[in-house]
Amino acid sequence: MRFISRRSGVRLLIVAMTVSASGTVLAQQQDAPDNSVTVNGIKSPGPEIKGVITARNDEKMKVTTADGNNMIIAVNDGTKIRAGGGLFGIHSKMAQDALLNGLPVTVKTWRAGDGPSGELVASRISFRNSDFRTASMIRNGTSQRFEEQTAATENLRAHLGDIDKYNVKATTEVHFDTGRTELSAQDKAQLCATAAQAQAQENALLLVVGYTDATGSDDFNQTLSEKRAGRVINYLQQQCGWKPYRMLTPTGMAKADPAAPNDTPEGKAMNRRVAVNVLVSKSVDGL
User: Fold this and answer.
1) Predicted confidence band at 137 (pLDDT cuts at 50, 70, 90)?
2) 17, 27, 211: which is closest to 101 by C-alpha?
3) Cβ(44)–Cβ(4) under 8 Å?
4) Which of the four pLDDT bands, split at 50, 70 and 90, describes residue 223?
5) Beta strands 104-112; 119-128: pairing state
6) pLDDT on residue 151
7) Are 111 and 118 in contact (CB under 8 A)?
8) Which of the listed residues 108, 128, 148 is the one where a domain comes to its end?
């Protein structure tokens, strides 16, 4: 276990949430015929894009993928927008105003026009309810909305929305055995110490992010990272007295953003972690 005080550059997710493999996106349903824009009547299938929304206007959005590429995608009245991941995996229809900056999405596209230079048009946009709640909390917790965000920044910021609206006051990490979610007595003591320190800071929020090493499948690691984050959240609230309304939605990042290389046992041990980040909105920090 280690306690790290930082004011900037911390690896985070707000909203948050990574672009992982199949474990982080919704199970896709078969698309009905779409009404995407065509050029001269020509329309060809486009790629499926997984990434984070990093900019948005009325008709287009920018999605940044895990490798840092920016994709401009048109959104129109024919675009189907679905949120899921809740009880029994039920999907619900959403309006275009649900497409928030910082939201991880999977986008099925058509290409308007002939050839690879044609405009990409979204036929279906899917995301998880938990990711949408996180993105909403981030937007509503800042003094001004995110107008432009970049995902081509260091570490976790390469996968997520801009977190520069917050000051990071401290980060505490607890670590886990392979495939496990149990907290040690030392971890529990450290979590309550972190909560007590954060409690003394005006307007502090906690953001909890779970991680895994590279052992196992993507689906397994996504679920495991979420369980680890949830275990820490529950202990902070139930045993350390941290109020739920001062907690951002916990996030599982699976094996993304490793703290150390996964080719040694020591590196894997460092990656099996949960980070508890103490955040204060810049708009109220110091008041």
Assistant:
1) low
2) 17
3) no
4) very high
5) antiparallel
6) 31
7) yes
8) 128
Tally of domains in the chain: 2
Q: Cβ distance 126 to 132 under 8 Å?
A: no
Closest of 183, 280, 283 to residue 233, by C-alpha: 183
123 and 28 both lie in a single domain: yes
Closest CA to 223 of 48, 22, 53: 22
DSSP state of 79: -
Query: Residue 233: which of 212, 218, 247 has the closest Cα?
Result: 247
Assess whether pLDDT exceeds 60 at residue 190: yes
* Pair (92, 166) in one structural domain: no
Q: Is the pTM of this model over 0.70?
A: no
For 80-93, give the DSSP string.
Answer: EEEEE-SGGG--EE
Domain encompassing residue 40: 24-128
**CB neighbour list of residue 178: distance below 8 Å, 6 or more residues apart:** 213, 215, 268, 272
Are 6 and 45 found together in one domain? no
Measured in degrees and rounded to the nearest 5, phi and psi for residue 151 equal -110, 5
> H or E stretch including 74?
strand 70-74
Q: Are 121 and 49 in contact (CB under 8 A)?
A: no
User: Measured between alpha carbons, how far apart are the two ends of the chain, in Å?
Assistant: 32
Contact 71, 63 (CB under 8 A): yes
CB 167 within 8 A of CB 282: yes
Task: Encode 7-58 in three state secondary structure.
Answer: CCCCCCCCCCCCCCCHHHCCCCCCCCCCCCCCECCEEEEEEEEEEEEEEECC
